[in-house]
Amino acid sequence: MIFLRLFAAIVALVLVNQAVAEPVEAPSSVAALFEKVKLDPVRLELFLRAFPKGADLHNHLSGAVYAESFLKWAAEDGLCISLKKRTILSSPCPKPGEGQAPADGLAGNEAGWNEMVNALSMRSFIPTEHDRSGHDHFFSTFLRFMAVEPRHQGDMLAEAAERAARDNVQYLELQIAPIGFDVLGGMMKSAALPSLRSEADFAQAYAALKPALGRMAALSRASIDEMENRARAIMKCGTAQASAGCRVTVRYQYSALRTFPAPFVWVQLVAAYESTRQDPRLVGVNIVAPEDDPVALRDYDLHMQMFQYLNRLYPGTNLSLHAGEMTPSLVPSGDLDHHIRAAIDVAGAKRIGHGVDVLWEHDPASLLKEMARRSILVEINLTSNDEILGVRDGRHPFSLYRQAGVPVALSTDDEGVSRSDLTQEYMRAVMAYHLDYPTLIQLSRAGLEYGFMPGQSLWIGHHLGQVIPACAGVILGGNAPPACERFLQGNLKARLQWQLEARFQDFRQDVMMNPLLLPPQ
Q1: Does 226 lie in the same domain as 318?
Q2: Rounded distance, CA 255 to CA 271, Å?
Q3: What per-residue confidence (pLDDT) applies to 127?
Q4: What SS3 string covers 314-344?
Q5: How far apart are the C-alpha atoms of 277 and 137, rounded to whole Å?
Q6: CATH label of the domain that carries residue 444
Q7: Do 319 and 376 fall within a single domain?
Q8: How far is CA 38 from the centre of its chain?
Q9: For the chain, how many structural domains are there in total?
Q10: Does some domain include residue 84?
Q11: Are 259 and 461 in contact (CB under 8 A)?
Q12: Domain-located, residue 270
């Protein structure tokens, strides 16, 4: 018996030594490596954080900023915090006490600081008796930090660009509203707009605003100039100390809020179209705010008709519209059956933001077929849809869109409020839908392909793999032949796409040499 035990121990020791000594076969490709690392969330995040992400196409600048930044700026501006209402006020505290405290003293109040960070974001959100809904909590955050925004647009832009650079995002398309609502309200009153219920009303309302068009565009341009100048100064762009955020290409969508009375929505949209026509940094127009708001629901079809009318006056304007960001738990089924279709067929949207309720649309199969045929991209916001709508993983139509051939791209929506970034969106997608590496490449390419930046594409007809003749037959991202180089220099979109392919090459070399990603020996 002793002999048998000794023999078994020796055999076990030999087997252990052999197991340790035998090398683990290294993956033969990045795709093979990815299949291994995606089983380990820690190594998967390391892989995805370094992965080149072409674009974030759905990103609200105000929602991209972390609560801590707003609190810091409130302190710099000498503003007051209402701890009772959990809101940053627009003026200094009149006197101490009464549930208010100077923002510059909040950092010394740990409980108050944490309460405010939670109130200004989705951090640690747990439904309570007085704060039951992730939907309501999410949208309430914007009112809580609104007082800080006007003085810090440049700071906000710098934060968004810096985060994109750290996250290996190449292109940002930020949603902004560069003209103050008070100014637009004054224009609306001066124009004495009609009730806006028919196309005849639109014509009269546009004519009434014509004298203000030049001022609209000038105000928008000045606002963006000031924001960008401040951001460049913060990031030290153009100097030897320039931060990585300076290398991120940024363009903007002018976004109108849909929850106001129709005349004010009209003024916003006219300002958006006119400003976009005159400023190449504005590459598209959008409409935002809760789609399930009673006013937004009541006027949804009217808003789509406004877009349709303005498209005729401003041909070629790019539209990416929030549509389908609802579920049956928020609104009756009758409000779910046509928003995406109307955004495409009536308003002329080239991209759809969210599109979560597609299954409740009238005849969803024909809608999906049409979206695929016309290459209408859907901006997928997985974290946001989870936090606001409670729709996640298998209940999200992400896989349905892909199966139907509808182009999709991952985006962040409001990464500061959600405490997320584009890497986390890719993480969610990989873990929920078991994506492979070629799919990651396609998702990254789609962000640039469907971005509204100017210029022709590197790809033929949205086929992400069929290269235009001038650049065919060469290593993408490598040394471009003269004809290809001329094409790239004349087309920003293609140039960014070529740069993305170069980044893919560098990424492949780096990850295959990264010992933290290789299988353990």
Answers
A1: yes
A2: 10
A3: 85
A4: CCCCCEEEEECCCCCCCCCHHHCCCHHHHHH
A5: 36
A6: 3.20.20.140
A7: yes
A8: 24
A9: 2
A10: yes
A11: no
A12: yes
Mean pLDDT over 334-354 rounds to 97
Q: Output the CA torsion sign for 382, 387, 393, 398.
A: negative
pLDDT at site 44: 97
Residues 381 and 299 in one domain: yes
76-90 burial by CB neighbour count: b if 16+ within 10 A, else e?
Answer: ebebbbbbeebbbbe
Per-residue tokens: 324: 């389908």
pLDDT tens for 247-280 read 999 999 999 999 999 999 999 999 999 999 999 9
Contacts of 50 (CB under 8 A, 6+ apart): 168, 507, 510, 511
3-state secondary structure 468-482: CHHHCCCCCCCCCCH
How far apart, in Å, do the first and last CA atoms of the chain sit?
36
Place of tokens 């930046």: 453
* Distance of alpha carbon 411 from alpha carbon 170, whole angstroms: 13
What integer pLDDT is reported at residue 21 of this predicted model?
37
Cα–Cα distance between 206 and 269 in angstroms, integer?
Answer: 10
Kindly report the average pLDDT of the chain as a whole number. 93
Same domain for 354 and 396?
Answer: yes
With a CB cutoff of 8 Å and minimum separation 6, the contacts of 517 are: 33, 37, 43, 46, 47, 511
Q: Which pairs count as long-range contacts for 104-108, CB under 8 Å and 24+ apart, including other chains? A: 104/75, 104/76, 104/78, 106/71, 106/75, 106/81, 107/75
Phi first, then psi: what are they for 321, rounded to 5°? -110, 135
Same domain, 208 and 101: no
Residues in the chain, total: 521
Please name the residue that has the structure tokens 């949804």: 300
Q: Does residue 188 sit in the same domain as residue 116?
A: no
Residue 215, exposed/middle/buried by CB under 10 A (0-12, 13-18, 19+)? Answer: middle
Burial (CB < 10 A; 0-12, 13-18, 19+), residue 518, is middle
CA 514/CA 510 separation, integer angstroms:
6
Domain with 123 in it = 67-132
Write out the H or E segment, with its range, that includes residue 354. strand 351-354
Contact of 126 with 115, CB cutoff 8 Å: no
- Please identify which residue in the block is written with the tokens 């683990």: 24
pLDDT of residue 393: 96
- Strand pairing partners for 78? none
Q: How far is CA 275 from CA 121, 142, 255, 283, 284, in A?
A: 31, 24, 11, 10, 10
Strand residues in 105-233 grouped as ranges (E): 169-176
- Mark which of 408, 425, 454 sits at the end of a domain: 454
Contact between residue 353 and residue 379 where contact means Cβ atoms under 8 Å apart: yes
Nearest to 227 by CA among 181, 299, 174: 174
Q: What was the pLDDT predicted at 14?
A: 39
Contact 70, 473 (CB under 8 A): no
State if pTM tops 0.85: yes
CA-closest candidate to residue 193, choices 90, 97, 267: 267
The residues pairing with 408 across neighbouring beta strands, listed in sequence order, are 378
Residue 210 sits in the same domain as residue 93: no
Query: Which of 438, 454, 470 represents a domain boundary (last residue)?
Result: 454
